[in-house]
Amino acid sequence: MERPLTRNIHPNRPPLTAKEYEMAGGYMAVKQALLKMTPSEVVELIKESNLKGRGGAGFNTGMKWSFVPMGETAPTTKYIVANADEMEPGTFKDRLLLEGNPHQLIEGMIVAAYAIQATQGYVFLRFAYKEAAIRITKAIIEAYAEGYLGDHILGTGFSLHLHLHTGVGRYMCGEETALLNALEGKRATPRAKPPFPQVSGLFGKPTIVNNVETLCNIPHIINNGADWFKSLSYSEDGGTKLYGVSGNVKTPGCWELPMGVSMRELIEEHAGGMKDGYKFRGVLPGGASTDFLIEQHLDIKMDFKSVSMAGSRLGTGTMIVLDDKTCPVGFVHNLEQFFARESCGWCTPCREGLPWVEKILWSIEQGKGASNDIELLFEHARLLGPGNTFCALAPGAVEPLQSALKYFREDFEQHIHQRKCPYD
Amino acid sequence: MATLYVDNRIYEVTEGKNLLETCLSLGFDLPYFCWHPAMGSVGACRQCAIKIFKDESDTTGRLVMSCMEPVGKETRISVNHPDAEKFRKQIIEWLMTNHPHDCAVCDEGGSCHLQDMTVMTGHNYRRFEYPKRTYLNQYLGPLINHEMNRCIQCYRCVRFYKDYAGGKDLDVYAAHNHVYFGREKDGILESEFSGNLAEVCPTGVFTDKTLKQHYSRKWDFTFAPSVCQHCSLGCNIIAGERYGELRQITSRYNGDVNGYFICDRGRFGYEVANSPKRLLQPQLKNDNTSFGQEFIINDISELIATSNCIGIGSPRASNESNFALQQLVGKENFFAGLSKQEYQLNQTALKLLQSGVAEISSLKQIEQYDAIVTLGEDLTNTAPMAALAVRQAVRKEPVENAQQTINLASWHDAALREFVQHEHGALFIFHPHATKLDEIATKVTYATPEEIASEGFRIARNIESSADSDPIAAALLKAERPLIIVGTSLFNEDLLNAAGALAHSLQKKGKTPGIFIIQAECNSMGLAMMNTPSVEDAFYKFENNILIVLENDLYRKFPAQQVDELLNKCKQIITFDHIKTHTNEKAGIVVPVGIFSEADGTLINNEGRAQRFFQVFIPQNEWLKESWRWLYTLKALKESTAIDENLSLGTVQQDLIEALPQFKGIEQTAPDEDFRLNGQKIPRSPHRYSGRTAIQANINVSEPKPLEDNDSPMSFTMEGFRGIPPSSATPFFWSPGWNSVQSINKFQIEVGGPLHDGNPGVRLIKPAFTSEFKLSSNKTSLKANEWLAVPIYHIFGSEELSAEADSIQELTPAPYIALNQSSIDKLGIKENEVITIELNKETYQLPVKFRPEITDKIALIPYGLTAMGYIALPGIISIK
């Protein structure tokens, strides 16, 4: 089984230097793209590979790039931004790539920048990823020294200047337009779309924001082709995927596996199954902002379409397992507390609705719930849905809530009737 | 045109506008918070949700925010869909979870958009059972009160303050359900437009602090449409009275003049009407006993019957009052209470407007120009609303670019600002010192007034020769609509000539330039149009004559010694004014008159627009009548004709037009006193006006007969026509379900457009082409220890009337002199050190301020500060 993304990542060893990375086949894609391909050929190749965004939305990456204005009339300054603000609870896959092989990301960014003819690049890094910041900084310096960054890369007319920006730790910055606002030094509030960042992004210029994992896939597609990339996968979505499992499993972790591996295989084989004494109760398949799936869904493929058909989202592909000894109300309360706190405060439903949800859940968990609380929670889950709020934060936040109400309703009712948490 | 189906009814609407403004224009009551007609849409509050359908067969639809969706060729929406109604109600419930529900003690109560929207959506039962979040409030200065707990986070305040008005010190802090709108720390708000926060805020977070001292609910006010008296722009205002006291000024929408906003001087300067400086009783020199009205008036009439009278008019008196004085003393004896220099400046300004070398821009039209040159005018301090308009104008070019390149609608505010970033259209500023608009200027040049004028002439020559090497000439030639802003504040006539030459050169190149001329006072243009010579020309006439001074403090216009000398030559001095002035102190007889809220009249603003201001209430003090009314009485007594007890403004205006036909049109500034709607008068008070039968019950239990108004079709009561009155005679904005100022939507033909039956005001100046402009400027040479003292203006303090308002006095700077580094070095002095200067043979002691940007031989001295008295500016000073 090929593991292109993590092949050069070795636990407990520092990441490859630029030289070592080159020796391991690194920066080949930059040479291939810049010297032998036109930008539009790069875009076409990525489109053809069916690489879907690994940040959660699962949009075709090549397609996203193709919306950037090109040619003579296009603005002269364009930007490529790596979204490394990995703050989804339960998600730690990008960290592996950032700390493990920063040159792979840089290479991906150079190719992506070339494809859209961006001259400035930013890595927007989560504040808490201190080690990654050190390693990326070092890698950027090395890449400049090796001539992969800067003016006239590889003697071509193409130039790219890459900068590291460390955020201040807001979940909101994972949303690409809020990220751009933060990068501009403004409040991290999302922007209305349209206009999309591809047209009016950072500083009002065309900008592509891609997830770290997405960008790390780029060099391998350039080197090996679209068909190879598709062949890595068990499903129609191309490539491999970094999957993670956390919760009361025997060996929580993060693995690069073919896209579309089953949930059961992930939990039972790679994560070693449930810890002794714990039973599987449910799972958030793609991070905190995805709907619960339960036992009956264990055999579904972990790809964008299959998980969506089961009623949830692949999201980041890093799952959180709920067991039978953990209170689902408390579990959801913990998540909603996070989301309410991380709401940027821009639109009313999210700013005022999530704290209300959090307070209701807390009072239910404390044994102070009232009979109409479940109805209020349902109502919030409905009214905070997509389209009603300014961005996807609140709709994501109510996904675990609405599915918990669906699958674990008896737990909520028990809390209210017994006037205490039955798990205490 | 596009077709819009609203709940299956068909409407013809404009394509591309957003659905919210379209629905509001069609008369639907759709609730909203974050959208503002002048500021566009951002989609934050989610209050204006409606259902939109793909086509006829789509029955499910999609919930969208109407402010963020454009009208397409054919659009199907539902405003009343149950899903949309439920969502809108839920939004209010969310907003209300933390709102303190303190309407009973909130200044906004009764004119609160949040109240209106809450009632409109039907939210009435609280399900949120948890504690509310609370905030600490801030001290924001003497003008604005801060009560953050009431905030519903619509973001309008910061969008107005920062994005629209260019303020820096109000911002959003913190996040999630704890966002905070305020300053970084307590302190006086720095923007000259902070008062608009009280109108922009949909609830009671930002309220008028001066109103707090004599609070009244909106429904208890008696209102009248009025015109701001504190600069030459003539912004439209609504003045409100309760218990015989002027208590509040708010902006009155005029799509041609001030739009939705007014500046802080205009909003808070009204306190002069209640200040200790107010003149309320007649004064007779050397006599402290009080006299009856009849006695004094007879006294005056006897005086003027026996001797020759000289009348001095005023740039802050109404046209009617100036005219009445002219009629009383005779044309040959009537003079403008201005220095010769100021008279000449005003005449040149008038001629420039009349010349036809440029289109006269109205205040609001400034926003439509794509390249602007200002020659020696610190707009923020001499005509603040013009500065606000310039801030919008410089966005025109980049916004149009955004609309073309990425197809952004003009109302899509956040996206436009994102795309535009800090780009702005061409703005070239020439001024002796730094101004607040410098930050948005393409180029700023600091120079003496003479140098600025010669720069203007130079650019004009370069335009004529199409010299590409001059970037300013090139930018003006490239622009579709170039605008020249100039004014009289630096007392330099060459600046006006330079503006004329510039406009003329552009015109010769096939451009249609615009011109906007700032003047000193609210009726400077009106006085200039009377073509009355300066009183300086009449000093010889003062000998043994009776002098009548109308609403004018000569000590602000001439050196004290000169005025003293003149007044001493007069046999008797009679003054008519509403405030106590130094001139009044010297007068033998002082007659108190009504201030603008107690008077009717017209003013002519800087663009030559005649505008009517209406009396708000009839004061109990019987002295407080319009000057023109007193002067007409005196004229009748002088001529031994019958006194017209029912004299109306209309009659005076007819006389005025007959005598001075250039004023034809002022009679059309408002409907006449006989105008009725459905046979009814227009009520000055809202129909919920309370306590009418009890308000004077401590004096008399019988309700007095309502007072009559001979001058206007408005009543002083709550009874009368309940609908939309003519735009010029709209005392307040109110509509069923819309108690707050947001009800303005119902008074416009379409949202953000002109008022029903047009924006008020009549432009009296009809340009006809002539062009006589001097083409070079004078040169002053300075000796080694001499500096050119140039006036620097302060929005708070430089204008005579507003300077007496309590809140504004708190913001008025102390006198100073400003010099640059090399001047300070040369003199070997330190900042704040008090130095002695000599100007025009007078010596002054002033602390030194450091202004790094001004040129070497310039000294700045604040103009018009009460604490400073008259200083002959500009002038050459020597520093000891």
Care to count the β-strands of chain B?
35
Strand order, largest beta sheet of chain B: 13-24-23-22-14-15
The level of helicity of chain B is: 25-40%
Give the topology string of chain A: H per helix, E per strand.
Answer: HHHHEHHEHEHEHHEEHEHEHHHHH
Catalytic activity (chain B): a quinone + NADH + 5 H(+)(in) = a quinol + NAD(+) + 4 H(+)(out)
Family (chain B): Belongs to the complex I 75 kDa subunit family.
Keywords (chain B): 2Fe-2S, 4Fe-4S, Iron, Iron-sulfur, Metal-binding, NAD, Quinone, Translocase, Ubiquinone
Cofactor (chain B): [2Fe-2S] cluster; [4Fe-4S] cluster
Keywords:
heterodimer; A: 424 residues; alpha/beta; Rossmann fold; Ubiquitin-like (UB roll); four-stranded parallel sheet; four-stranded mixed sheet; 17 helices; B: 880 residues; six-stranded mixed sheet; six-stranded parallel sheet; globular
Characterization of the model:
The complex is a heterodimer of chains A (424) and B (880). The radius of gyration of chain A is 22 Å and the shape is globular. Helices cover 43% and strands 11% of the residues of chain A. Chain A is of the alpha/beta class and 424 residues long. Chain A contains 17 helices and eight strands. The longest helix of chain A has 18 residues, at 348-365. Chain A has three domains: 18-231, Rossmann fold, CATH 3.40.50.11540; 240-323, Ubiquitin-like (UB roll) (Roll), CATH 3.10.20; 328-418, NADH-ubiquinone oxidoreductase 51kDa subunit, iron-sulphur binding domain (de novo design (two linked rop proteins), Up-down Bundle). In chain A, strands 3-2-1-4 form a four-stranded parallel beta sheet, with helices on both faces. With 880 residues, chain B is an alpha/beta fold. Chain B folds into five domains: 2-89, Ubiquitin-like (UB roll), CATH 3.10.20; 103-274, no CATH class; 292-342 and 527-680 and 694-711 and 758-762, 3-Layer(aba) Sandwich (Rossmann fold); 344-525, Dimethylsulfoxide Reductase, domain 2; 786-879, Barwin-like endoglucanases (Beta Barrel). Chain B is 25% helix and 18% strand. Chain B is built from 24 helices and 35 strands. In chain B, the strands form nine sheets. Chain B has a six-stranded mixed beta sheet with strand order 13-24-23-22-14-15. At the A-B interface, α13, α14 and α15 of A face β4, α2 and α14 of B. Chain A: It is an enzyme of class 7 (translocase).
